[in-house]
Amino acid sequence: MLDIIKKSMRGMIVYTLVILVIGIIFAIAPAESIKIMNGFIAVVSMLLGGYFIFDYIRAPKEQKLLNFSLAFGIILIGIGIFLFIKPNILVDFITVLVGIILVVKAIYKVQTALYIRKMTKAWKYNLLVGLLIFTAGLLLIIYPSGSAEVFLRIIGIVLAIGAIGELVETAFVMGTLKEATDTKEIPFQEK
C-alpha cells in the first residue's frame, strides 16, 4: 500500500513541477506566453482543418453530399491562418469575453449587496467586492491587450505559489511515509 502511495506522490511531484515552471514562465514572460499559446491554437486549428479536408477527400462519393468536413476544414484552416496574421485578435476576444462575464457577475454582486443591506452588515463587503470586480471587468473590456498580460502574470504568480505550497506539502507527506516505513509495521488483524 505504501508503495502505491509513494508512486502517486512521485507523479504528483512531476505534475507540480510542471505547473511551477508554467507559472514562472507566465509570471516572467506573459507577452511571449500569449504569443506561444496563440501560435499553438493556430497550428492545432490548421491541423484539424487539414484532417477534416482529408476526411472529406477519402469519404465515399455517396457520403460527400451530406458531409460538412470540407467546409469545416476550410474554416478551421482559415481561422489558423487568421490567427497567424493577427495574433492578438484571439487574446483580445477572450479578454473582452472574460471582462463581460466579470461585469455581469459584479452587477449581480452589487444587486445582492443592495438586497441584503437591511438584513446584515456584511452587505458592505459584497458591495466592495462587486465594485472591484466591476472595475476589473471594465479594464479587461476597455484595454484587453495590456490587461491580458497583467492577468496572465498574476495567474503565473498564483500558479507558482500554489505549486511551491504543493511541493512543501508533498515533501512533508513523503517524510511521514518514510518514517512509517522505517518503523516496524504492525500487521492488520481483523476482529
Kindly summarize this structure in a few lines.
The chain is an all-alpha fold and about 190 residues long. It has six helices and no strands. The protein is extended and about 70 Å long.
Based on Cα principal axes, name the global outline.
extended
Strand tally is 0
Q: Measure the end-to-end span.
A: 21 Å
The domain tally reads: 1
Helix vs. strand class: mainly alpha
- Largest sheet, described in full? none
Mean pLDDT, nearest integer? 83
Q: What portion of the residues fall into strands of 2 or more residues?
A: under 5%
Report the order of strands and helices. Answer: HHHHHH
Distinct helical segment count: 6
Cα Rg: 25 Å
- What is the percent of helical residues? over 70%
Are there runs of 5+ residues with pLDDT below 50, and where?
Answer: none
Describe the structure in your own words.
By secondary structure, the chain is mostly helical. The chain contains six helices and no strands. It has one domain (2-181). The mean pLDDT is 83.
Layout of strands and helices, then pairs:
Elements: H1 2-28, H2 30-58, H3 69-85, H4 88-115, H5 123-142, H6 144-182
Helix pairs in contact: 1-6, 2-3, 4-5, 4-6, 5-6
Tags for this entry?
0% strand; 6 helices; mainly alpha; 84% helix; 191 residues
